[in-house]
Amino acid sequence: MTSAPPTGAPDRPWIPRFWYGMGCGAWLRVLARYHWAITPARVPMALGIASAGVFNAAMAAVQHARYGRRIAATPLRDDPVIIVGHWRSGTTLMHELLALDVRHTFPHTYACFAPTHFLASERIVAPWLRRLLPDRRPMDNMPAGLPRPQEDEFALCNMGMPSPYLTMLFPNQPPRYDDYLDFVGVAEAPRKAWLEQLLHFYRGVCLARPGRLVLKSPLHTARLQLLLRVFPKARIVHMVRQPHEMCASTLALWRRLYHDQALQQPDYKGLLAAVLQTHGRMYRAFNAATAMMPPGQCCDVRYEELRRDPLRAVQRVYDVLELGAFDKVQPALERYWQTAQHHQRNAFALDAAARAQVDHAWAWYFEKYGYAT
User: Fold this and answer.
1) How many domains does the chain have?
2) What is the DSSP letter of 269?
3) Is residue 12 part of a domain?
4) Which long-range contacts (CB under 8 A, 24 or more apart) does 352-355 make?
5) Which residues are within 8 A (CB) of 195 and not within 5 positions of it... i.e. 6 or more apart?
6) CATH number at residue 346
7) How far apart are CA 280 and CA 273, in angstroms?
8) CB 160 within 8 A of CB 227
9) Which domain holds residue 166?
């Protein structure tokens, strides 16, 4: 692969960086962990994020003073809905749909990018920031916005916690935080610290808007055993998709994110191998977790089913997982889909050699979920 900008989404004059919500100390620790291997052209970006980190640290102190006790006292229901599945399998769309239920709450984009101070700063910062952000996600042209549901892994990154997503910053370097995909090899103390920070963030989300949490993260596919320790009654929505399409779209996703978010000029070497290997690790952990679940705790949903008839697909989720009366959310779903059904998806394809590698590496996935090779 070349280092040319990825195709499939337009270049924009200003790309929002995921890392602007990170505190200065956390940012400097990440840079040191990667030995400051910054491409000269991205030095201004690194300095800008460090400057924003000073503001984040100050606002975090304000939030702790004003809301710290209330956050700590906020209860968490033990039955959140956790949407999992490989990247580009439809997890974002499912998150958007389930978030329409007024009985639910969810981490929104501003909370995930300012996790240490969103309660204290949202009213001040969000209106100004909203004017700068694009209304579409650059990687897939999906609608974007500060109030919309967001993946909580970005909150963990901005809280300074270890995450495989930090590889986006230095994609040409060996991964430093891959153990935090499935927590194999992570000692109990850092595992506990990671989980405590995540739960603290969830409490803040529930303080801002009470309800059943609806969470979404592809990385949580490999973490269900850990999350079920805290949420033993969690409901799991597992998204699956035709593997060739899913892999092609994932490759495009990472190329786009590396291009936009990295502090290096990415070379994209070994990207396909990394995607195939991560899928294997993710589903070894997922299959081990679901083997211990009782019937009715996990619902598989095909992406193709969700696109074809979202109301029926979501109603099946409500029925299988016993999420409550579907008719209370159906009107909101119908209004949403009147607009969303016209969304133009980006199309990507694998060459013959890559398709053969996917056929071999993911053969069990084709068979288990009924996709033809």
Assistant:
1) 1
2) T
3) no
4) 354/247, 354/248, 354/272, 355/244
5) 226, 230
6) 3.40.50.300
7) 11
8) no
9) 18-369
Encoding tokens for residue 229?
Answer: 């320790």
Angle at 276 between CA 167 and CA 304, to 5 degrees: 105
First to last CA, the chain: 25
Contact between residue 212 and residue 205 where contact means Cβ atoms under 8 Å apart:
no
Tokens of 133: 């952000």
d(CA 134, CA 217): 22
Q: Which tokens go with 196? A: 């405590």
Q: How far apart are CA 283 and CA 221, in angstroms?
A: 7
Mind listing the pLDDT tens digit for each residue in 303-326?
A: 999 999 999 999 999 999 999 999
> Amino acid letter at 271?
L
Count Cα atoms within 13 angstroms, Cβ side, for 310.
23
Specify the amino acid at residue 373.
T
Beta strands, E only, 81-146? 81-84, 104-105
249: which residues sit within 8 A by CB, 6+ positions away?
Answer: 87, 88, 140, 346, 348
Question: Is residue 262 a part of any domain in this protein?
Answer: yes
Q: Where are the alpha helices (DSSP H) in 39-106?
A: 43-73, 91-98
pLDDT tens profile 216-232 = 999 999 999 999 999 99
Q: Which of 115, 103, 99, 102 lies closest to 148 in space, CA to CA?
A: 99
What DSSP element (H or E) covers 157? Answer: helix 153-158
Instruction: Give dist(CA 20, CA 52) in Å, integer.
Output: 6
46 occurs within a structural domain: yes
The one-letter code for the residue type at 338 is: Q
Report if residue 321 sits inside a domain. yes
Closest CA to 91 of 81, 102, 105: 81
pLDDT 10s per residue in the chain (373 long)?
Answer: 344 445 444 444 446 688 999 999 999 999 999 999 999 999 999 999 999 999 999 999 999 999 999 999 999 999 999 999 999 999 999 999 999 999 999 999 999 999 999 999 999 988 877 766 666 655 555 666 788 999 999 999 999 999 999 999 999 999 999 999 999 999 999 999 999 999 999 999 999 999 999 999 999 999 999 999 999 999 999 999 999 999 999 999 999 999 999 999 999 999 999 999 999 999 999 999 999 999 999 999 999 999 999 999 999 999 999 999 999 999 999 999 888 766 666 778 999 999 999 999 999 999 999 998 7
